[in-house]
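Message: A physicist's question: would you kindly supply an amino acid chain plus fold tokens?
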Amino acid sequence: MTRKVIHVDMDAFYASVEQRDDPSLRGRPGVVAWKGARSVVCAASYEARVFGIRSAMPAIRAERLCPDAVFVPPDFVRYKQVSRQIRAIFERHTPLVEPLSLDEAYLDVTAPLSDLPTATDIARSIRAEIRETTQLTASAGVAPNKFVAKIASDFRKPDGLFVVPPSKVEAFLAPLPVGRLPGVGRVTERELDALGLRSVTDLREAGRDALVERFGRWGRRLHELAWGIDEHPVEPERPHTQISSEDTLESDVPLDALAPHIERMAERTWAAWTRQRERDALEQRPPRRPRTVVLKLKTSDFRILPRSLTPARVPGDAAALAQVALALRTRVELPASTHYRLVGVGLANLGEAGPQVELFDDA
């Protein structure tokens, strides 16, 4: 049976929530971010996007692009509350909901809970329910698989619906630039461009064998995507397998000055892990235990350095977690003059709890 997949993507979600709750922001270029040289843009209203402001952009650059922009500090508690309302709407139509973030999700409506006759009707209904419940707009794409639905949801933004029936998938993809395919980032796009492969049609004409010879298994995947083939199912949300906290520092510091920041992130991560255990208990999930400690650093030139260790015994409290994370600094083999702008500490490989065993170093 051909799958019926909907990708729902809220329109400028954080910024739209702020404009909904504060009428003075409506029609004005709004930026959800803290001001300052170390901050980045969480979201930009459509009025701000006209000036070239985008998510993840340094806030100071956004200020330069639009000096009249209104900066609003993010309120993630409020955004999560709205996201839960939207999630409840999805689940009235299907149990197969795969969230990607607070503001977007895949839905498999091949066998829906509602009696609406088509996936298109379901998408229309969901968008109408979101508008009525939250006073916000959502865009949606409907297609026979996930990646085509995600591309389609962007075609009529904001507040739009775009449907790609199975018979139209190949024609829909053909003229698209290769950068629209999932997994093709800037580096891969430049590499493909150097080979004269700029569009999906170019990938098809190159042929699977040539792509496999040049890119290995990834070449086979590129060939499948070019022809609209994607068998990945919509997977309902699973329990987190990693819990972490990170923070961008007020100023760049050397490695030997990171200890208090690492300890602070370890305390925050342990508190989050404690809350997760309580949720697991309430939802009657089997007890779990984190097996790996992760230290994440970002240098002043934005190089990301993850380091991890699976110790013989897992940490039993925040202090023990901090101790392991601090020890991971010895695995950072960069000059002592290197400075760091971000630090994070995580607990990974959350699996069902069993007896304590000797575990190998995960490196």
